[in-house]
Amino acid sequence: MEFENLIRLIEAVSRSELTGLKYEEGGVKLHLTKKQGQTKAAPVTEMAETAPAKTSEAQTAAPAPAPGGKIVESPLVGTFYAAPAEDAEPFVSVGDKVTKGQTLAIVEAMKLMNEIESDYDGTVAEIYVSNGQAVEYGQELFRIE
């Protein structure tokens, strides 16, 4: 990507309500994030709509993370789904070994399904949210050891 196009892309993301963007072209990977504003995300993967489960206020409060490990946070506001479909097995469970780039879950935002990938190699030590729960930008989703 040419430098001028890169600057235009950064400026466009800065002006928009996006909080993150991943872009790859010709072996060059770009990952932009910002920690303010509303989220409108481009689709990573689209899939059939599933009805979110009702959540209570008690479910939406994230527990304090245990010491150690690395935290995977939600990059956007939406609904958390642990599996690709209602009747499918979850992407990961506590105790599963994961690799960097592996899909851990999906967050639905504005009818678009966005894959949440692990930034780390390790073992899933904790999952902080339940299937169908509403999540916020920056909310802790997983702890990887």
Architecture overview:
Strand 1 (20-25) and strand 2 form a beta hairpin. The protein has two domains: 3-33, no CATH class; 57-144, Beta Barrel (OB fold (Dihydrolipoamide Acetyltransferase, E2P)), CATH 2.40.50.100. The protein has helices at 3-15, 57-60; strands at 20-25, 28-33, 70-73, 78-81, 97-98, 103-109, 112-117, 122-127, 134-135, 140-144. The longest helix is centred in the N-terminal third of the chain and has 13 residues, at 3-15. It is mainly beta.
SS field, number of helical segments: 2
Domain count: 2
Q: Sheet with the most strands? A: 4 strands, antiparallel
Summarize model confidence as the mean pLDDT.
Answer: 76
Number of strands: 10
CATH architecture of the largest domain: Beta Barrel
Order of helices and strands: HEEHEEEEEEEE
CATH class of the largest domain: Mainly Beta
- The CATH superfamily of the largest domain is known as RNA polymerase II/Efflux pump adaptor protein, barrel-sandwich hybrid domain
Q: Enter the CATH topology name of the largest domain.
A: OB fold (Dihydrolipoamide Acetyltransferase, E2P)
Sum this structure up briefly.
The protein has 145 residues and is mainly beta. It is 12% helix and 33% strand. The chain has a 4-stranded antiparallel β-sheet, with no helix packed on it.
Topology, element by element:
Elements: H1 3-15, E1 20-25, E2 28-33, H2 57-60, E3 70-73, E4 78-81, E5 97-98, E6 103-109, E7 112-117, E8 122-127, E9 134-135, E10 140-144
Antiparallel strand pairs: 1-2, 3-10, 4-6, 4-9, 5-8, 6-7, 8-10
